């Protein structure tokens, strides 16, 4: 065991992936390939692994080492009672002395990526609005978690292909190949990321900050709600940000929503709110973008509030009105009191949000 993670025997991983066979290849990334590994455990259960191997060149091997270092530092800050919505790091291959034999072992995510869910029609039916809000909340928590870890981690490649679903269909932030943790010699790290998600103001090493991730997260929020790709050359404007910003400013919320799934009227306020948060995240000026902690508060609190208030207050009201009819003895002021309590909570929360 190293840093609470397991060291896997290299030969066992070779066996688990059938010698990195094509049939076990899950996908190829810019610096390596991921294979599905089937690993027998002592209790006869089978553990499904995702085993990442660098493509053979020094640069790619260094990127994999970096990913291992970052994931292992995050794992040390991960409290068991919380799900940080970061891909579960399980360990590495035992150090054989050959750098190129270094493997990254993660929990296997069997349900594909957010990109597949949104854009590949054969993958699954388009997600309902409640699920989209949940994904937004959970990923915002993941990004806050990495930013607030010690050392703080900046992901630099937040995008829908790097958000994977676990066996319970919970989203997890993955692919820390470009991630930077704060004690790194920041001045030497050249800007990197993916076009469409990349913060336009991140133009030099000195501009590296958590706000770069906030921008990319804002693009993902727009993508979740609209189901438009970050860049779609078949449309004008091709950039999701350029398309969405004027519509959000004019409050044309319904036009921004994925039309394949009808937006229930009770979700309109929550979705409009998420879109306004997204607009702040993709502001051109970095200082206008909120920090992730604020974003989590804004999305989480508001969306929880919608869940809590929509039912309790109105069901209470309904219940009271029914009782009133039955007993004809409920005083008007009781119902009025309940309504004004509901209005007061709503006012308090809205005041905090604006
Ligand atoms: N833990 C995992 N479980 C299942 N599949 C995974 C896991 N991690 C990565 N993958 C899949 O493996 C493939 C390669 O992933 P990787 O993170 O190396 O690169 P990428 O995100 O596709 O590309 P890039 O590195 O260019 O951003 C992708 O299809 C990804 O969805």
Automatic annotation (TrEMBL):
PROSITE patterns: PROTEIN_KINASE_ATP, PROTEIN_KINASE_DOM, PROTEIN_KINASE_ST. Its EC number is 2.7.11.1. It catalyses: L-threonyl-[protein] + ATP = O-phospho-L-threonyl-[protein] + ADP + H(+); L-seryl-[protein] + ATP = O-phospho-L-seryl-[protein] + ADP + H(+). InterPro entries: Kinase-like_dom_sf, Prot_kinase_dom, Protein_kinase_ATP_BS, Ser/Thr_kinase_AS. Keywords: ATP-binding, Kinase, Nucleotide-binding, Serine/threonine-protein kinase, Transferase. ATP binds at residue 52. It comes from the Eukaryota. Residues 20-303 form the Protein kinase domain. Pfam families: Pkinase. One of its GO terms (molecular function) is protein serine/threonine kinase activity. PANTHER family: PROTEIN KINASE DOMAIN-CONTAINING PROTEIN, SERINE/THREONINE-PROTEIN KINASE-LIKE PROTEIN CCR4. Belongs to the protein kinase superfamily. This is non-specific serine/threonine protein kinase. It comes from Acer yangbiense.
């Amino acid at each position: 065991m190293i840093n609470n993670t397991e060291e896997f025997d290299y030969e066992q991983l070779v066996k688990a992936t059938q010698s990195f066979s094509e049939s076990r290849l899950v996908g190829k990334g810019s610096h390596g390939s991921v294979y599905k590994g089937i690993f027998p455990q002592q209790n006869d259960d089978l553990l499904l692994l995702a085993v990442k191997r660098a493509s053979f060149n020094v640069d790619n091997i260094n990127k994999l080492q970096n990913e291992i270092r970052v994931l292992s530092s995050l794992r040390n800050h991960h409290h068991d009672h919380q799900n940080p919505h970061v891909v579960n790091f399980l360990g590495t291959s035992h150090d054989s002395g050959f750098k190129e034999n270094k493997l990254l072992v993660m929990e296997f995510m069997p349900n594909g990526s957010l990109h597949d869910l949104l854009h590949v029609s054969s993958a699954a039916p388009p997600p309902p609005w409640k699920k989209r809000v949940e994904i937004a909340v959970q990923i915002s928590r993941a990004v806050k978690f990495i930013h607030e870890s010690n050392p703080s981690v900046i992901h630099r490649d937040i995008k829908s292909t790097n958000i994977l679903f676990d066996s319970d269909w919970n989203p997890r932030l993955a692919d820390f190949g470009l991630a930077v943790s704060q004690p790194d010699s920041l001045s030497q790290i050249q800007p990197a990321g993916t076009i469409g998600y990349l913060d336009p103001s991140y133009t030099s090493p000195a501009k590296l900050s958590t706000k770069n991730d906030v921008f990319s997260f804002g693009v993902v929020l727009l993508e979740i709600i609209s189901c438009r790709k970050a860049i779609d050359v078949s449309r004008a404007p091709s950039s999701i940000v350029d398309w969405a910003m004027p519509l959000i400013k004019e409050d044309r919320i319904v036009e921004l929503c994925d039309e394949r799934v009808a937006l229930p009227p009770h979700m309109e306020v929550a979705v409009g709110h998420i879109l306004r948060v997204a607009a702040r995240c993709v502001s051109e000026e970095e200082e206008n973008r909120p920090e992730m902690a604020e974003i989590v508060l804004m999305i989480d609190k508001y969306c929880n509030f919608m869940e809590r208030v929509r039912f309790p207050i109105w069901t209470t009201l309904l219940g009271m009105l029914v009782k009133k009819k039955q007993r004809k003895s409920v005083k008007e002021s009781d119902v009025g009191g309940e309504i004004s309590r509901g209005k007061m909570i709503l006012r308090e929360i809205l005041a905090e949000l604006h």
